[in-house]
Design goal:
By secondary structure, this protein is mainly alpha-helical. Helix content is 51%, strand content 11%. The chain has two domains: 20-83, Helix Hairpins (Orthogonal Bundle); 92-199, Iron/manganese superoxide dismutase, C-terminal domain (minor pseudopilin epsh fold), CATH 3.55.40.20. The two termini are 29 Å apart. The protein binds fe (ii) ion. Fe (ii) ion binds at residues 26, 30, 78, 162, 164, 166-167.
Amino acid sequence: MAYDAKPLPFTLRRIGNISEKALEIHHDKLYQGYVNKKNEIEEKLKTVDRATGNNVTYSDFRSLKLEETFAANGVYLHEDYFSVLGGEGQSMAANSGELGEAITAEFGSLDAWVADFKACGMSARGWAVLAYDTNDGRLHNYIGDMHNQGGVWGAIPVIVLDVYEHAYFIDYGSDRKSYLEDYMNNLDWKMANEVYLKVRNLSF
Ligand SMILES: [Fe+2]
């Protein structure tokens, strides 16, 4: 069954200095493009020749399997990114709830987490992710240079930050630091806490 793109989870508007136009392109063109490719790849996998697929250098099957994870993670990470972006300056201390308590327990303080998360955002070529890792039952800041690199299986994204250049170059040029400021100031902490409450008791 084809995957349906999810609408932007907040009213399209300027967020900090992230322009309405940049958000619209990011959601309607780039995100929609990942959804389309995810569906296209899954369709092609139904009929691709598996008999010639046993080659680690190149085969149609190998290429489809590699890009299957790139497209799928491109879809899911963008959905998680958009879902926490519309917070309109919510106070972290007042709105982060149980997630804030867990962040404080893991990182020492909310401010220490912010510093670490921003450092991740400045260091990654694709994504910075606060994830609840069901393997060890702890929160971690992970980074990835591509959609299908850097993720830890069993770790569930709670707060996702897109640092691909397409996320900020239109509005900020090379000033990624200011983009990170605006992102942090517009985090939807209530949404992030809802995700955390859903996943915090999972362990395998
Ligand atoms: Fe993106």
